[in-house]
Structure formats: C-alpha cells, structure tokens
Amino acid sequence: MKSKVADRIATSVFVALALIIVIIMAGLLFFILSRGVPDISWRFLTTESSTVSAGGGIRDQLFNSFYVLFITMLITVPLGVLGGIYMAEYAKQNKVTSFIRSCIELLASLPSIVVGMFGLLVFVNAMGWGYSILGGALALTIFNIPVMVRVSEDAIRAVPREQKEASLALGISHWHSIKTVLIPGAFPGILTGTILASGRVFGEAAALLFTAGLSTPGLDYGNWNPFSETSPLNLFRPAETLAVHIWAVNTNGIMPDVERIADGSSAVLVICVLMFNLLARWAGKLVHRKITASR
Question: Where is the chain membrane-spanning (predicted)?
Fold first, then answer.
C-alpha cells in the first residue's frame, strides 16, 4: 500500500514538474513571438540595419549568422565525428583516455564568455586577425567540438555490436567496418546532434562579442570574391550576428524604433532555432527509416 502511495506521489510530482516546464516554455515563446512576429516583413529581413534612423532591418546580421554557422559546422563536424570514432573504437580504457574524456567534459562546461575571451587573446590579438568571421567560427568550434565528440561517440556505441562483429567475421578490416557499418548506423544520431549544435551556434552571442565584433562593413552582395573587403564571403571582416545585434540594440540602441527592431530580431532568432530543432527531428526520423527500412 505504501509503495503504491509513494508511486502515485512520485508520478504526480514528475507530471507537475513537466507541466510547469511546458507552461514556462510556452509562455516564453508566446511572449517573444506575439511581440516580434507582427514586426517581421520582407523589407525587415532584406534591409540594411541603421544605427541612428528608424526603418532599419537585419539583412546583414541574418546573413552573418548563417555564414558563421556554416563555417563553424564545416570545421566542427569532421573533427567531432573523427574524435567520436577514436573515443568509441580506438581509445583504450586507461588513464590517458580517462584524462582525454575529462578534458572534453571540461571544455563542454566552459562558459561561452570564457571561450570568447580566449578567442580575443588568440585569434584577434595574437594572430592579428582583428574581429573576423574566421575568429568567431573558431571560437564557436572550441565549445562545440566536445558536444560533437560526445554525440558521435554515443551514436557509434549505440549501434548493435553484433553488426560490427558480423562484418569483422566476414574478413572486413576494422576501418572498413567503421565506414560501412558503424557510421551509417550512427548517422541519424550524429545528424540530430549536428543540427541541435547548429541551433546552439546560431543563438550564441557572448563568444562572438569578443571575436567577430559588433559591426559589419558595407557589403556588396554582387561581389562574391572572398578576398575583397566588401565581399560578404570575406572570412577576415567583422560580422555582427543576429544574437549580437539583439544585445547591442537592447543595450546601446538609439534608433527611434529600437523596440520594434529588438522584438522582430528576437522573433526571427527564435523561429530559426525552432526550425533547427524541428529539422533535427524530421531528418533523424527520415534517415533512420531509410537505413533501417522501418516505418
């Protein structure tokens, strides 16, 4: 009798906590979207921002956010997946591996502001790049690699060992088994982790304040020469992202319509992150269905 009562109490507590979390998240989303969505328009998304006059948009900040995200994931995903393969398949269970795992967990727990200060010291000052897209992307890579390593390692370990043993029993080499059996089996998990990490990168501001800067030079979207100063593809130009723009507008904005810009920018950021999460779920299910032939 006592155990049944304890079970009911525990169930009620967990359900109540889950409802509280859902209500808080729904209220937060409703507050941001109800204030910001009415301000979103095609002109708002495709107009250059202004620091003094009303009517500015977020064209450059939106492009910078996606460009920094692309460069960051271009560096992070290969390194993270290779690190996960090493930790799951090659690393021996000894003190060295334990030390590496502790370092990965330490890096994953670092506040992004600390990573930003490190990026300021190394990429901005020591390397002499100044505020740049490449410096920002490398700083974001530092605290995303541990996540990708752990996600890749867990996804590879989740593949049934019988599949790997069966491939090895056929005389296939270890590396070939990894390429043809383990990575395809772990691909849904790796893809989901990659897209979720993308959402984290897209909404990051603290690390980019010190590495990518708070401004964007005049860009010519007809100039695709990556070595030109006015090219949007130039990796060594400052780039204010959308998350940094929201912080800057709310703290130092003097435009007459500063509230409209902040609300609209916040809504666009939240919608993009939501799309990343929904895309992760959809892509993970789709790939899993194709690989396992399940419905």
Answer: 12-33, 66-87, 99-123, 129-149, 181-202, 261-280
